[in-house]
Amino acid sequence: MIRPRLPSAALLRDANSTIQSRPIRRRDPDQPSLPFDPMPSRVEPCLALLKPTVPQGPDWLYEVKWDGYRLAIHIEPKSIRILTRGGHDWTHRFPAIAAAARDLGLTTAILDGEAVVLDEQGRSDFGALQHSLGGRGGKRISTESILYAFDLLYLDGHDLTRTELSLRRHLLEGLIPENADGALRLSEELQFDGEALLDYACHHGLEGVIAKHRDRPYRSGRLGDWLKIKCVQSESFMIVGYEQSATTRGGLGSLLLAGRKAHDWIYVGSVGTGFNRKEAEELRRTLDRLKTNKPVVPVKGKRLVFAQPTLIAEIEFRGWTNEGNLRHPSYKGLREVQDNAAVFNMTNAPSTAK
């Protein structure tokens, strides 16, 4: 029997997808009193291995890849503990998630999930999450965060890490309230074809897809039981200078990049990966011939050399920061003049990049 559930994100409501859910197995209320497996103080998380393509076949289930902070929720008889991936206690920083976990009415459990802040389209926004916590190294309490739970490691005296994922998911679905839309939600299993889901996720600005092997136990570390397939964007940007380096290949540390906005140039950050020593030396020689004392974008820093806007580079990146810079950019190569490449227009970028 398949029960309809609220999709993991509002963005997915318009998709013609079937959300998989299995019949709930009722728990015996007397079971929590039995001394079965001791509850661990911490479980080292299972991590997803980065892969370029989505694995196919019935052995795999697919979920949205959430862009947030990995958390373990420890529900104990008299307390709730929220641990970060590194084992730090951040219970006080996620009060809404802690309250929602308490409201589940469980005696003992460990939930594995991702804390996120959603944008208006239901997409996880890492910049917004960081802001809600006071930025990098901040101490602020996040009231906007919600937790998407995707695994159940312990329940009522039973260590579930040795059981297969399909059983853990089955039990988890029985714990999260149907159509939950509060601070604790279920990260739904989506019955898309894997490649179709990735195309859909990338088209709608999600970070990517997580694929998990249904029959594997919960194993700590990055062992390939879980895979992550990210959406990679690629656009053309103008090189407007470079940062000198005395230690990196060719004396070129990074390229300064700009996009278009109407008739103006807008700085979008720098890229320091993707080119080898030979490419770096060629880029520096070419940019030195284009050197100018009048930068086309206002960039401050030491050892900067500005160039006339002539060279167009193709750049892969993972999204945009709140400051309007590229996230995790990588240089792919120069666009040829004959290619008639259009420099990226910032009016087409997300609001955070404008």
From the spread of the alpha carbons, the general shape counts as elongated
**Total helical segments:** 5
Radius of gyration: 24 Å
pLDDT < 50 stretches = 1-11, 13-28
Give the beta-strand count.
Answer: 16
Question: Main β-sheet: number of strands, strand sense, barrel status?
Answer: 6 strands, mixed
CATH topology of the largest domain: D-amino Acid Aminotransferase, Chain A, domain 1
> What structural category do the secondary elements indicate?
alpha+beta
- Counting structural domains, the number is 2
- CATH architecture group name of the largest domain: 2-Layer Sandwich
Q: What is the first-to-last residue Cα distance?
A: 47 Å
| Beta-strand residue percentage | 25-35%
CATH homology superfamily of the largest domain: DNA ligase/mRNA capping enzyme
Protein name: DNA ligase (ATP)
Catalytic activity: ATP + (deoxyribonucleotide)n-3'-hydroxyl + 5'-phospho-(deoxyribonucleotide)m = (deoxyribonucleotide)n+m + AMP + diphosphate
Keywords: Ligase
Enzyme class: ligase
Plain-language structure description:
This protein is of the alpha+beta class and 354 residues long. It has 2 domains: 10-20 and 43-230, DNA ligase/mRNA capping enzyme (D-amino Acid Aminotransferase, Chain A, domain 1); 233-353, Nucleic acid-binding proteins (OB fold (Dihydrolipoamide Acetyltransferase, E2P), Beta Barrel). It has 5 helices and 16 strands. β6 and β7 (158-159) form a beta hairpin. The two termini are 47 Å apart. The model is unreliable at 1-11 and 13-28 (pLDDT under 50).
